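Technical annex, item 7. During the second reporting period the consortium partners agreed on a shared format for inverse folding records so that results from different sites could be compared directly. Each record opens with the tokenized structure and is followed by the designed sequence. A conforming record, contributed by the partner at site C, is shown below for reference.
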């Protein structure tokens, strides 16, 4: 009887704490408990993930953790996430700083007034950001919110991971004595970024973007602390983009483990299939742009043009980028933009490689 009364008292206490004060009882209801600001589909994803983890980590599922394929999958997934995480931190910090500290009209004053001219200027400005593709997505989002034309922001998004000094230096180290590969990567990447920006001016529709990105000049609000706005913006962007980064890393690790190495040998001997194959491989492997040159250099059985396609496509379209873009700009934008970018990047690589080799 005492245990029953004790359990009832604990249950009443937990219910009272979960309910909270009357003015805070807003949000999603789950079994009588309200969770403020949580969307139902996120709750479902969390519950499914928790259930899956319980199965895998349970006594009956412990044997699966020792399987070599599972260990390889876990290693690849963790490597991709850890490799991209510092640059995602950099990108979200820059995004928060731009939103809180940079005057709203600065970018519109610096860029040319005509959007067609702003696109190549923004693409060339991608050399300023020493980060990878994970950093460029939140920065491009912040630029759009501050009034930069989406076409220019997207040109920056595509060029920044591929033409910054860190990436070009890594490419030179990976291909010693082959400056043509560095020049080809620079030219093909800039051309792809500019063409995609112009394509957005011609065919893009703003209704493909998330509603929050259609409202311009959403930076510092008078009367509010800039540091508080920076902290809140940084936290929101990092947590939002970090979840999609992990999803992309999981998908890339699954491909890396599931596809046998013999498949590479099958495609390397075909000059027609090697280019699209390595372009698709770059999408699926999701290697950070600071390290992809060393992967490309190891693919000695493929032609220079095919390896150039790997270097140009990878920083612009891969699984983690698709997930990040879908979460940041919207799915309607992501699948159209990523598909078009892949086609343009492969075409640019073939034309550049054909001219140099």
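Designed sequence (site C submission):
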């Amino acid at each position: 009887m005492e245990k029953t009364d004790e359990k009832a008292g604990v249950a009443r206490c937990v219910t009272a704490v979960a309910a909270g004060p009357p003015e805070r009882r807003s949000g999603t209801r789950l079994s009588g408990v309200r969770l403020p600001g949580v969307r139902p589909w996120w709750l479902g994803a969390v519950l499914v993930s928790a259930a899956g983890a319980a199965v895998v980590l349970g006594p009956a599922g412990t044997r699966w953790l020792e399987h070599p394929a599972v260990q390889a999958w876990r290693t690849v997934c963790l490597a991709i996430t850890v490799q991209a995480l510092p640059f995602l931190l950099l990108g979200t910090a820059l995004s928060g700083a731009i939103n809180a500290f940079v005057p709203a009209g600065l970018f519109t004053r610096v860029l040319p007034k005509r959007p067609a001219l702003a696109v190549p200027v923004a693409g060339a400005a991608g050399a300023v950001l020493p980060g990878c593709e994970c950093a460029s997505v939140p920065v491009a989002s912040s630029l759009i919110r501050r009034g930069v034309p989406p076409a220019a922001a997207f040109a920056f998004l595509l060029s920044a991971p591929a033409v910054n000094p860190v990436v070009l230096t890594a490419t030179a180290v990976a291909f010693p004595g082959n400056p043509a590969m560095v020049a080809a990567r620079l030219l093909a990447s800039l051309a792809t970024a500019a063409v995609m920006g112009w394509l957005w001016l011609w065919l893009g529709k703003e209704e493909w973007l998330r509603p929050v990105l259609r409202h311009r000049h959403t930076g510092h609000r008078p009367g509010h602390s800039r540091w508080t706005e920076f902290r809140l913006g940084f936290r929101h962007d990092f947590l939002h983009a970090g979840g999609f980064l992990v999803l992309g890393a999981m998908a890339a690790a699954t491909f890396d483990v599931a596809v046998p190495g013999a498949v590479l040998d099958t495609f390397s001997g075909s000059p027609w299939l090697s280019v699209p194959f390595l372009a698709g491989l770059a999408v699926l492997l999701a290697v950070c742009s600071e390290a992809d040159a060393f992967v490309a250099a190891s693919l000695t059985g493929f032609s220079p043009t095919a390896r150039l396609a790997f270097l140009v496509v990878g920083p612009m379209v891969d699984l983690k980028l698709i997930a990040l873009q879908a979460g940041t700009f919207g799915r309607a934008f992501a699948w159209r933009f990523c598909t078009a970018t892949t086609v343009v990047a492969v075409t640019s690589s073939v034309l550049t490689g054909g001219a140099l080799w």
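Confidence is low (pLDDT under 50) at residues 1-60, 214-218. The chain has 17 helices and two strands. All partners now use this format for quarterly exchanges.
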